[in-house]
Specification:
This protein is an alpha/beta fold and 382 residues long. It has eleven helices and 16 strands. 34% of the residues lie in helices and 16% in strands.
Length: 382
Amino acid sequence: MNRDRDDAGVGVVAPRQVTLCHPPDELYLQSGRILGPIQVTYETYGRLSPNRDNAVLVCHALSGDHHAAGRHAPDDRKPGWWDPMIGPGRGIDTDRYFVVCSNVLGSCKGTTGPSSINPRTGKPFGMRFPVITVRDMVKVQALLLDHLGIDRLLCVIGGSMGGMQALEWAVRYPDRVRSVVPVSTTGASSPLGIGFNKIGRRAIMADPNWRDGDYYDGEPPRDGLAVARMIGHLTFMSEASMRRKFGRRISGREGIYAFTAQYDVERYLHYNGYRFTEQFDANSYLYLTKALDTFDLGDGFAGGMDEALARIQARIRFFTFTSDWLYVPEDTDVLEERLRALGKKVEHIRVDSDYGHDAFLLEHDRYAQQVAEFLESVAGEG
């Protein structure tokens, strides 16, 4: 990784779309339902090698999308969500690797989800959209790679929900993945995470504007979605980062003895919660948090987690952050031990950080070099 490179990144990029799973070849979902056709929005960076052996799949977290790097126009103020990690000379070097990032099934950023038009009714699916899982997301990604002519991946990498997808790839498609880099993630959702997601979903469903999910012809449930996002933000941060960022600072003429006054942390949550409602669909939030809750690598295997992990052939390098209390590093310790007992090639790098779960997005400089070295090592194995 060359930190002296020009910081232009991947430059101006454009999303692409493809429609897969046309009837009668619909996608069979983990729930037993079928879905099709499915539109997938994705972006690519770098060039696919003549041998098609340098592809890296980047998987996004809950509120992310396909736009992982670069800008959609020269004057865009905000680049892709993982731009500091992807580009020439960066952690995922686009001079060496062909990077693919697709919007997940169930989202609202261009891939088929509850806000999409149901071809059978001509109206948005709403809550008639089938419940989807992380496994279903990965199935769609595999079909996209088939469309792109990529049989085997050099690596699958992602943080949080993206890390779940990386692990699912290693278990479900062992012959197609040479390595995975799961960041800030878990092998099965915890009761704590499920509980917070439940509260967020109840906030949305309690909003009078939710209307059982059929709000697309009227006012959306902004208050409910904003509250859900506020709850989520709290789980992404740490006690130390919140004390440093907000302290007990307060604004308002009346002081602390009036509800019109707000602590800085309250103002931050309110601002980010309502800004999120301008960018995301409430029903997608319901479906994606449900997918997080149902995630369990061992699901469907008679031997549970150990049978699932035994299928993995890929090299694995986990990254966790010491202050992450949503997906605690100790859970990854357990996964690492089980994988080692099964004779798998696994490493676990614990990054010292007080930024909490969001550290994988905010402190890329703390682990980008180690990502670059790992990819170089895997590529060198041929």
